[in-house]
Amino acid sequence: MDSLARNKVDADADVDPDLIIPTPVWPPGAEALSLDEPEPHALGGEHFKLVSENGFGDGYNNYPHSMAWFKGRLYVGTTRATFQMLAHNDPLPPLDPWPVTPPKDIYDLDRRAEIWSYDPASDEGWICAYRAPWVKGDDGSDVPRFIGYRGMAVFQGTSDDEPVLYIATWAPRKAPRPTVMRTEDGIHFEELPGPNWGDQVRSFRTMQVFNGRLYTSPTGSTTGDRQSQECVGGRPAIFETKDPRTGWRAVSSQGFGDPANLTVFEMAAFNNHLYAGTVNARNGFEIWKTSARGDPPYDWKRVISHGAGRGPLNEVAVSLCEFKGALYVGSGIVNGGYHRKLNVGPAAAEVIRIHPDDSWELIVGESRITPQGARYPLSGFRPGFNKFFNGYVWRMGVHAGRLYVGTFSWAQLLPYCPIHKWGEEGQRRIAKMGVDWFVNNMGGCDVWSTADGIHWDCMTRNGFDNECNWGIRQILSTPYGVFIATSNVLAPDRAIKRNGKWEYVHNPRGGCEIWRGANPPGSEHA
């Protein structure tokens, strides 16, 4: 597979360089970047094998929202029918036609979230380890207990005899509040009480282990208008437990004392501290850290503010990952790169790098002057790895001495976007090449890897040759290679225009996909 080559643009082609593949902006003294000569042991697109497709055989499994390695098996938790659910939001996002068949009633669909497991050492294939049950909703109807499993962590609480798998849940509006799930063997699952956030909070995502405790934070709530919001009406605080069986306690103030911090979006352990990244549409994301000592609420220190000097265009700290003595942060804007409700963006995402002394560098992004001085993208890449449609740097993971980074791209939604309502400049740029050209060349997410944060190699520029793979939702290192899971919501059907008319047709490559990258030569499980 040569996904990178397929997405290179001829320097003589009549392409708008500001929108497609801009020339790298090099800081003074930096050496040029070569994509044609990958470092030894770097995985290329040809080293990845598809091990699960079409949402484990059901296109409604379109988000692989969580992933963990537990007892020699890979576990993946799904969220179902995401775009079908979004079609019932009020107000409705301005897409015409709706990209997938919109159900008359979202509760008519079987949205029971699933957990799948896989043993790479055997040929048994994937097993559905658990499916959420039906429960009685607040109106007396049968509803899914959970519609998504948004986080997983292997953790040993004080009452656990050994490490067990804990799972964060997403409950639909009519169901009881979300809880924490637990399994000792990957076969039998039980529900535990979750933190007491009240009935409005519908989901939580991040589960971070640090210093013998498990941490999480609410990420979504109902607002009474038929929709679940990522960052409205919830409790933007961090909660911890030594034993999920016995309860949780708050260890931070709401939004770290700033009401503009709408959600604690992501957490990571680094440099003997717990780091947390926020959503802040007014000023840009913030990064906070604590040693988690003493009595809660702990002493938290702000490390980054104002979106690292970019403001609201770095609205969200989407992904955090420790790599070779630094903490890497991937940014984004709510709703995939354009927060339409608050009119933030559109803009492509950045990568910054934080050091133990709280200094930071710009790795991928826009050159600028900040209160800390001038910042240039040390990699030479502008936002989105030179791809305007990459609205998130969605996931990061470390494997075999390399940092892997996956993006989210919204280019495949262009056929449904109201381009005629865009500004003159946006319309001009799209018209220059045509919508189909953008979908074929910019559709699908990216995967990049680096050994030093400066020089990057590309695994794919087009969702592993699937334009409908709009994002990388999970990256996980295992003894059997690195597993990368794609999110794909254009399923089980997709709106296609034929002979001037729109129709919904089955999408054979819809639903989430799981890819395995073989370990580099000479590694333990090569």
Describe, in plain words, how this protein is organized in 3D:
This protein has 526 residues and is mainly beta. It is 7% helix and 38% strand. The protein is built from seven helices and 35 strands. The strands form ten sheets. Strands 12, 13, 14, 15 and 16 form a five-stranded antiparallel β-sheet that branches. A four-stranded antiparallel β-sheet has the order 1-35-32-31. A four-stranded antiparallel β-sheet has the order 2-3-4-5. A hairpin with an 8-residue loop joins strand 8 and strand 9. The longest helix is centred in the last third of the chain and has 10 residues. The relative contact order is 0.15. The N terminus is likely disordered.
**Radius of gyration using CA atoms only:** 22 Å
Shape: globular
Uncertain segments: 1-38, 222-233
CA distance, first residue to last residue? 20 Å
Strand content: 35-45%
Range of helix content: under 10%
Task: Output the structural class.
Answer: mainly beta
What is the multimeric organization of the chains shown? single chain
The averaged pLDDT comes out at 88
What's the story with the biggest beta sheet? 5 strands, antiparallel
Number of helices: 7
Total beta-strand segments: 35
What features would you highlight for this structure?
4-stranded antiparallel β-sheet, mainly beta, 5-stranded antiparallel β-sheet, 35 strands, globular
